[in-house]
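Q: Structure for this?
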Amino acid sequence: MDLTFSAEERAFEKEVRDYIAESLTPEMKRATALTPSVFSDPDIGMAWQRALHRKGWGAPGWPVDHGGPDWTPAQRWIFEAECARAGVPNVNVMGVKMVGPVIIGFGSPEQKNFYLPRILSGEDYWCQGYSEPGSGSDLSSLKTRAVRDGDDYIINGTKIWTTHAHHANRMFALVRTSDGERQQDGISFILIDMKTPGITTRPILTIGGDHEVNQVFFDDVRVPVANRVGEEGKGWTYGKYLLEFERGSGIASAKLREALKTISDLAESDVTGRAIADPDIAMRMSEVEVDIDALEMTELRVLSALQTGQNPGAVSSLIKLRVSEIRQAVTRLGVDVIGQDGLAVEPARPFYRLNHEPAIPEELLPVVPEYLNGRAYTIFGGSSEIQRDIIAKMVLGL
Amino acid sequence: MDLTLSDEQRLLRESADRFVAETFTSDHRKKAANDPLGYSPAIWKQFAELGWLALPISEAHGGLGGGAIEIGLLMEAFGRGLVSEPFLSTVVIGAALVAECGNEAQKQAILPKVAEGALTLAFAHSERAARFDLSHVDTTATKTADGWRLSGNKIAVLDGAAANQIIVSARVANANGASGKLGLFLVPAGAPGVAPRDYARLGGGRGCNLGLRDVQLPADALLGDGKDALAAIETVVDRAMAALGAEAVGIMQTLLDTTLEYTKIRKQFGRPLSANQVIRHRLADVAMQVDEARSMALRAALMANAEPAARSRAASGAKAKIGKCARFVAEQAVQLHGAMGVTEELDIGAYFKRLLAFDTLFGGSAHHYRRHAALSGRVQA
């Protein structure tokens, strides 16, 4: 057993570090640091996606024949860790990490040829149409309906919490094409052009003051049947595949370490009056760091199992729960570190392009919004309550 | 980067798991609890025959040259069976102190005997006024015409009363009488002036407080050449904390397994306890904390030979985190067993108490988060 990477892996690490150093602009880095929402806005995020694509690194998890770089699990780890350390933009995952693998796994040749290159290049910007006002954790109760009419489906209904729907030109959606015995039956996976007549998007502001999510309405929206991925009525299977794909590729500890370092640097700076001098803050800093150490080790155990071709097993389902809790602990610590400067609300966005001098130092601006928006971490992608249900069933066999 | 076990390591784990499951039954433990020695010399002999006592000792001194990972595998198995044999005090701490500080003659005299199972050791270091500060030692060693004279009071000496030799830390008085470097002294069992107050240790095994009054020792009782022993003590205690972390993981895993079974069998309101979401979620949290503890124990073992600051940060991080997890897991195991969990009729209580002992040994979570913060430059040490 050992924790060190091989000479080849070290060389790869240097290659990644060097490429990031030459491609990540100071503007991108600053914009990322000053973004208090989950994903960077597309002007920043897609600029980075294009930079990665130029190097052939646009889709680390994809197979080689669709443009993936053919990395080992260790290389993916190193890549993610270096990206986190450098503070690269948070590219919206809906394209590369979510719809991409579903199209690769279940799409027609035409769909693969059309969509995959556009995801890689950043030409298409995707959003995810899953949740509905009446279907949150109980996702398969969804009611948005697609009725067959010749070569088209006519879609009516509404989707909610749709991240970046206001930026996206495409949506992948789960819609009901028939009523089966179980509510998971009769769901289809559809690709929708967001410019299709009948689609309207309503912004929803989150409590941190950011516009990241939306509600999307479908009013007799006509979508070609050719835009369905896989078989009609099998959408639930594809939707779940997407979630499993996402689970195995998650490397969160490096990002959390950077987030903690940002807060730690603030705490050691005069900009917070040296908050670190408060022994309670210092202890909590260590407590969160140790939690990240434990998470990192768990991620490495998964990685090691993947490297040797073993199934990491149930341990990966524990990770999502811890990641979201630790993220919240970091943001909570941030609020305590900046103290009374947290009272100042800056409603304008983005923080990296303000037309006025903010009331508090710029680097403090995202701290409270990050904490507030961050309450969503234990809610989206299956709330912590749902995760505990899954752990009880799948890990503990209850 | 490879965290998979080698074939030898896998075999070690399997044989340890098997031996512990067969030997350390509930009945065995209840008998051992009333044994004045606290453990079985016959089993100790079997440990020697299995090669476990030789495991971390260097090959030059009759050992197998194993490391922290192998120790962790054994300790996790020991945790599952609440083993009370003096493995930690003799092998993980005692032999390691001799290996770190002793001169060649001392190593040759002691280490092969430990490996054979012919010699048990204990470490008398903690003092009440020190709390958990490893550098705080008031016990004194004064040079005499033909050796040393030790005086002081030690607490929490694990397996001290039954050990053949006790390694005692003391401040070595300078020529002008002022206290100087920290030294480690070999004190034979029953030496005049050594007064152990033996007790049954929380969670199994024995411990003692040790009075030392003008204990006369020969010149070669001092381990090594008189170099300050603090760095060696910190090294050995860091590694002992990693080993204890692995033991705690074994204990926690057993509590989780036992509690899971119980909640499936125990019926109230016409259905098993495990059908209730509040119970299922609690168990999910317990499982998660057992897994986090497992990661931290492994991490501390992998960092056991890192440079001192990194090693100590990993050890303190592990001790703090595993201690926190241990308290939660132990308390929830009792809670979910209901009133039965508070009785001596189930094994749960014994495992609970061993985890409580783990948490306090070498300092609890609060102490080690503080040490971690100090080592990270966040607070003054």
